[in-house]
Write a structure and sequence with these properties.
alpha+beta, 26 strands, Beta-Lactamase, 718 residues, 21 helices
Amino acid sequence: MSSQSWLPSLHLATAYLSPAYRFREKLTPAIQLLQPHFESDYAILLEMAPNVVRTEVLHFQRLLKIPAKGLAKEYPIPRPLLRADLSSKDLLNWFEINTKSGSQPAPEGLPHYHLTHKHLAQMRADRIGKLLVSGLELKFQQLYVFPLLLRQQLWGLLCFCTPKAELTIPIEGYYCTHIFARTLADALAQQKYDIRKALKTDFFIGSPTAISSPSKSVKVKDAEDHLLTTIITNTVPGDIFLVDIQAGKAIFSNTQYFLGYNIDKKENPLELFASIIHPDDLNVAVLDFIHKLKNAADGEVISSEYRMQHKQGHWVWISERAKVFKRFPDGVVHQYISIMQDITKEREAELTLIEQKALLQAILHTLPDIKLRLNNMGQIINAFGTDTESNLLNAYVHSADTKTLSDFLPPFVVRGILANVDKAIAQSNLQTFEFFLSKQGEVSYFEARIAPVGEEEAILVLRNMTRLKQVQNDLREQNAKLDQKNRLLERYIDSNLQLENFAYIASHDLREPLRTIRTFAQFLNRNLGSTLDAENRSHLDFVIGAANRMNQLIEDLLTYSMVNSKPLNREPIDLPQVLNDLLQELQSFLEESQAEVELVNIPTRIYGSPARIQQLFQNLISNAVKFRQPNLPPRVLIRGQEDHTHWQFSVSDNGIGIDSEFHDSIFFIFKRLHTTDQYPGTGIGLALVKRIVNQHGGDIWVESEPGRGTTFTFTILK
């Protein structure tokens, strides 16, 4: 046969993109013309199509085994070829370098690539040759590859092998990604619509007729499926696996790496997956999953979440979604499609959100407030109350009939809240106001706090302020009392300053004239006393007594003034020794009244001013003896007791006692309960005692009843 008879026949095989030819119907006659020259009664056809976006890039879209007689059989495109994107220019250059013309047994003048088994290593040395040989997995002694050209564009490869070409690609993987694309067609309807729209453009010439469906172009359908598959596998947020249960392995995957592992190097990725599942999640990942898959209906998506260990050692949360892909005739699941997605960040964010929600719920239920989410019309969207029953509004808010603010609040309060809601939304800030409600004569005060949420809603917090108002009122009353006491204290301080000034004047300016009066009175008494009559003598005795009392008063005032004006120097005091010395000085005074003084539990050492401590006990002992009951010898008991921060002392007697109405006033200066004729004194002693106790960081009080004796108790800072 001449070469001229071959050319039209072969060109028939390349004409499927021309509107003038129906390539599927012409391929078989073309192969029948070529077949006698080869030891094969069928050819391998690799159809190629340009990328929709980048037309200079080609991808493999169909693999056909076409016999000289009978129907063509389609095989899945092997993964290496499916992933390959080849430049049309590179392929043409490759053919230009490797093509031989006229080599036998191919017809003379037809460009083709002739490869023998001996040249296999040479072919695998270049990228394109290696891709074809490794991808097709053909077994051959000689291989003839004819480029199918149309207008300098490569549209496919027609291959003949001797001996007969044997494809070893398993048919079970048939177009799994295309079928999977259809299972997600609903979710990607818009994308599919855009793809169909793109396919109607001039990227494809004419409308070729398909053998299987005369109403639709096979090429357009195939290009659509391939492009849709590419978009899905690049868009779906996860790794896709087609798993054959009978074979016990994944027969397709759209990824090379999973959790850092190179699964292309694994004969069976499922074995790897089983080994890296967290031990605590095996039931969820395996047993529960198998149970769900076994009972899954067609089209039903089953899902599970579990942990798997990354190659770097850390644990990763995985979301697996699966759908039955193929069943045996008896309905048992044969294959299923699985999408596995890393959801660690989502899980961590979910856990964080749960924790934050739990914290917020705890805060909401802890706060003794009513929280409402409402719109600007006063309609309640959500209500968050408290468990307390003390809130006047709680029962109304959680009532089934409560749907608006007007259902449980009076109109004037609702108007105030809605006005503040509008203000909060307009100004995007917090608004507050207070109101009160009266129920059965009981007035309750509330504070409303309003925060905007968007442009039509707000959060309303109602807080019961009744208790706070009561505390505020009590505080105002206490402040008023404190202010009054401060004014009294100021007057007291002013009087005290005047007293100190008077004491200074009395001790210096009045002392000398008084001494002169006493001296002349005593002189008259010695020299003229015997010559005076009874009346004049009484007058003279009165002058002398008054002068003596005045002198004692001046002495006591001077002592009181010195205690106030001089600073306190604290030093260790041997208290038993001080008291023994004091009792020695008072011995004649005590013996005269037949008084007895008993010391009990006296601390060996305290801190303070020795002189003032002695003066303190002296005044209290003297008062106990002086205010004794008639015909009853005085008994004085001095007892000590240790406290955490102070020493506590008590001085008890069996004297005449003090009425309770004078328990506070007896410590005022010059305060006397008896006349000087009954009990002599100046009224300064107990005031001096209180001042000394206060200077030592303590306090003093009295317990007494008339006729039952008196106990003075005071404390001194340690």
